[in-house]
Amino acid sequence: MSDHFQWTRKHELLFGIRRSIRYHARRRRFFDRLKRGMTFLTVMCGMGTFAMLLAHVPPAWPIATAMTLTVLAVFDLLVNTAEGVRLHADLGRRFTEIEMDLVLTEDNLTDQQVREFANQRLRVVLEEPPTMRVLDCICHNEVVRVMGHNKAYEVKLSKWQRFFANFLDVSPDEIREVPEVPAPI
User: Fold this and answer.
1) 143: nearest Cα among 5, 8, 17
2) b or e along 53-90 (b: 16 or more beta carbons within 10 Å of the residue's beta carbon)?
3) How far is Cα 66 from Cα 10, in angstroms, rounded to an integer?
4) How many CA atoms lie within 13 A of 15 on its CB side?
5) In terms of CB atoms within 10 Å, which of 34, 42, 98, 185 comes out highest?
6) Whole-model pTM above 0.70?
7) CA–CA distance, 7 with 51 (Å, rounded to integer)
């Protein structure tokens, strides 16, 4: 195997792993913020309900805040924000461990080493929930910039796609194929 091919393969692995690390860090932060926001609103609704009951306000107000509290709790139960935080923190940590091992290897990887690292990466990918394509493209663009590649390798996304990236994929079918980033020569 040529030295350039070996370096290219290592670069491809590093690029994909770094993109995955960024992706899971973003998902973890999203779920963490959502969990904190839900907890804050739940506490406020609970305190508001209790305060209104003590103040003897018309019963419609405490009932409304209690219903809001229930809706928030059901939403949190359905979305399972705590599990989202845990899952994405774990996946990000596992990808980081693979990157640490890969960075410590020589640039001239053997065929066996390439297969082992690719296999480690695929084992983690197997446990990932479905990927949010727009968010993955945002992470791709970040890695392109961080690794010093040309902007031509970035994926063009609309401001609406970027804004909603953590919530839903806006027009993922309009995203052109993610360009393969070449290894530095």
Assistant:
1) 17
2) eeeeeeeeebeebbebbeebeeebeeeebeebbebbbe
3) 55
4) 22
5) 98
6) yes
7) 65
Place of tokens 């229930």: 70
Placement of tokens 């640039």 in the chain = 107
- Here the tokens at position 71 are 């809706």
Q: What six digits make up the tokens of 93?
A: 């940590």
Q: Where are the domains of the chain?
A: 3-129, 133-185
**pLDDT tens track for 52-79:** 888 888 888 888 888 998 998 899 889 8
Residues 6+ positions from 179 with CB-CB distance below 8 Å: 152, 153, 155
Short-list 162, 144, 91, CA closest to 121: 91
- Residue identified by tokens 């804050």 is 40
Q: Tokens 């994909």 — which residue?
A: 16
Out of 1-10, 93-102, 174-183, which region has the weakest mean confidence (pLDDT)?
1-10
Cβ–Cβ < 8 Å for 180, 149:
no
* Neighbouring residues of 154: CB distance < 8 A, sequence distance ≥ 6: 140, 141, 144, 145
